[in-house]
Amino acid sequence: MQNLPATPDEKCAETAAKQHGVITTQQLLAAGLVASAIHRRVRAGRVHPLYRGVYAWGHTGLSNEGRWMAAVLACGKGAALSHRSAAEHWKLLEGWSSPIHVTVPGDGGRSQRKGLTTHRSSSLTSSTAALRDGIAVTDPARTIADLRRTESQGLVAKAIRQASFRRLDIGNEGGHICERSELERRFLRFCHRNGLALPEVNVPIAPYTVDFLWRRQSLAVETDGWEAHRGRQAFEDDRARDAFLRKLGYEVLRFTWRQLEQDSASVLALLRRYLHVGVP
């Protein structure tokens, strides 16, 4: 008996099965469904809209992988799961958090979608992304670098330990924790030695974590080591972080290791000025 050609619905089901249960409008059309047929299936509860242009096929009981795949597909060509969502996909962190983080290539604007946090990066390329379970995701090294700018030091350290346990290549990212910890200790000793009120440390101000915060004076201080802050993407992310904090009413100061070591008088003068501490 001759096999009959696959129906459009069978083609859609096959495509969705390869994508953790989700499918795009373009794929529905390519399978042979016209727009009116898609709408009929939506009304009948056979196709479920997730994001504009992305659907769950047959049911909405998606796995974590299905949710991540849908988010990446919704953000278009070249997009990759990133930040904490990427860390969860690589099993560097436990659980499934919301919103889902996706990085898209380029510097241009892109509208935000409900349930997604979209990052824009001109440095996102095929060399910093990978496929895991069919989902585009930032590679482990890029994932750790992104975590440093949005999560607490403790969470980053946990992710690095898991990467080591799973023997994932994170390049030089594993060595930055020591540099950062030592820089933070030096800054706290500097404040104590010069009679400044000690700040709060690693304070979450979603979606970021601030190194040091004097809440009453609305002053945030970031201590920047070279390894964790070099490169164009780090520069862009730091500027976006500062703009976000200033929009909330915080003044933001940044100090480097070299400044603390070689220009401590200027650092102290600036801190006293913003903390309203009289110069003796």
**Helix segment count?**
12
Instruction: Report how far apart the termini are.
Output: 97 Å
**Topology, number of strands:** 12
Residue share in helices? 40-55%
Strand content: 15-25%
SSE arrangement, N to C: HEHHEEHEHEEEEHHHEEEHHEHH
**Strand arrangement, largest sheet?**
9-10-11-12
Cα radius of gyration in angstroms: 23 Å
Which blocks of ≥5 consecutive residues have pLDDT under 50? 226-231
The main β sheet shows up as:
4 strands, mixed
Describe the structure.
By secondary structure, the protein is α+β, with helices and mostly antiparallel strands. The chain is built from 12 helices and 12 strands. The strands form 4 sheets. The chain has a 4-stranded mixed sheet with strand order 9-10-11-12, sandwiched between helices. A hairpin with a 2-residue loop joins strand 2 (47-51) and strand 3. Helix 5 packs across helix 6 (140-150) and helix 6 runs antiparallel to helix 7. The protein is elongated, with a radius of gyration of 23 Å. The chain starts with 7 loop residues before the first helix and ends in a 6-residue tail after the last helix.
Topology:
Blueprint (H helix, E strand, L loop, with lengths): L7 H11 L3 E3 H6 L4 H9 L3 E5 L2 E4 L6 H11 L5 E2 L1 H7 L10 E6 L10 E6 L7 E4 L2 E4 L1 H11 L2 H13 L10 H18 L6 E6 L2 E7 L4 E6 L1 H4 L2 H16 L3 E6 H6 L1 H11 L6
Parallel strand pairs: 5-6, 11-12
Antiparallel strand pairs: 1-3, 2-3, 4-5, 7-8, 9-10, 10-11
Helix pairs in contact: 5-6, 6-7
Descriptive terms for the model:
280 residues, alpha+beta, 4-stranded mixed β-sheet, 3-stranded antiparallel β-sheet, 12 strands
